[in-house]
Amino acid sequence: MLLGTQRVNEFGHLEIGGCDTTKLVEEFGTPLYVLDEEYIRENCRRYVDALRNYYKGESRVVYAGKAFLTLGMCRLVEQEGLWLDVSSGGELYTALKADFPPERILMHGNNKSPEELKLAIENEVGRIVVDNLHELELLNTIAQERGVRANILLRVTPGIDPHTHRFIATGQVDTKFGLNLKNGSAMEGIRKALSMNGVNLLGLHCHIGSQLLRISPILKAAEIMVEFLKEVKDQTGVELRELDLGGGLGIRYLSTHNPPSIEEFVQRLCAVMEKNLKRSGLSYPVLLLEPGRSIVGEAGTTLYKVGAIKEVTFSKNGKLFKRIYAMVDGGLSDNPRPQLYNAKYEAIVANKASQKGEVHYTIAGKHCETDVLIWDVLLPPLEPGDILAVLSTGAYNYSMASNYNRFPRPAAVLVRNGKAELLVKRETYEDLLRFDVIPSHLQK
Ligand code: LLP
User: Fold this and answer.
1) Whose CA is nearest to atom 8 of ligand 1?
2) 2, part of any domain
3) Which residue from 66, 108, 334, 396 has its CB within 8 A of the most atoms of ligand 1, so it is best to mutate?
4) SS3 assignment, position 187
5) For residues 348 and 379, what is the distance between their CA atoms, to the nearest angstrom?
6) Whole-model pTM?
């Protein structure tokens, strides 16, 4: 599987954005996150164009920064004309420091602190997505103290099981997120918001889950949300003007994954919107989508160096098995997804990219636990020093990286047209000590 601008060059090496990955490794070291700029931009444009083509009302693409956010990424998203979804004070601060236009920032969070809300209000972010009644009161007070009215959307949970890993499912009834649509709390939130002087309720939001390879749950959510907009109009006389249906479109981690294309997803979603809007006699609300993974996921590749290789044989149920562990110089700290979500990945040997797969390997990390990145992958015979490229690591890898075992976090480079530039510097051992303090009674 080759994605975005990936290709195999005349040396049999994996190339991304016109850069030979073996050269990237020489220059930047490993592990290394490589981000394909063309591909990210293409995905942004595909969303914008698809919405323009298939939706009859106004629309906005809001990049979900939690997937991958750095100052440089903010600039890229800004250039593509997208909005930006931030879900914490830290993400908001990053966006502000990148001079991202605050009016195009949408602020999320299910337990926003007063400080986060103040930061959002003082910087006049475009939308705050209010998650619960406590936050609504808090925001109303903070805004009134400042004599402003915050533009808000209200997050509701449509009560849908999206059939994805339970840690990334959010639209079902039993969830910490949002106001429940079925038990009346959503309507209560709407009535409250409409009566408040510190908030300006513009619309509704829902996000039901992530890495959805089948989009029928999102289509169902759209239907329920339109129905609810109608109910709101009937009960309060107010026709809310914005509807944000969140993110969630899945990507190809494996060649066998076959998610709908961005165009197919948007087209089907818009058809459902149109049908249901017509039925309920509502006009087209501004439609917002918040893709994260499907913008940046397939555009990221992690390069590792192979070190130790070891073969084990073992018997199970009377049968003899062999496993070959190939160990790389990263793992859990740069990609926790296999452990957290049982996520699957594919890999290419970057310096042997034109060779056929012959041997089954188990790719293990170098942390002090069984941090297997891939349990079974067919690769050309490996030797220490080979460069392993793990695919589709652009989303939720760098953003979830840690310093477990005191591993410095890897660098991230942006590649395009044969040029590679840093997005994030590699951490050093010294960086690891930056916030350590030796209590006075332990000092030498
Ligand atoms: N909007 C909201 C409110 C969200 O909570 C999320 C993701 C998105 C948009 C973007 O969803 P996407 O298009 O990326 O599926 N760490 C997990 C993923 C958590 C997703 C959380 N919310 C993982 O590594 O799979």
Assistant:
1) 247
2) no
3) 66
4) helix
5) 7
6) 0.97
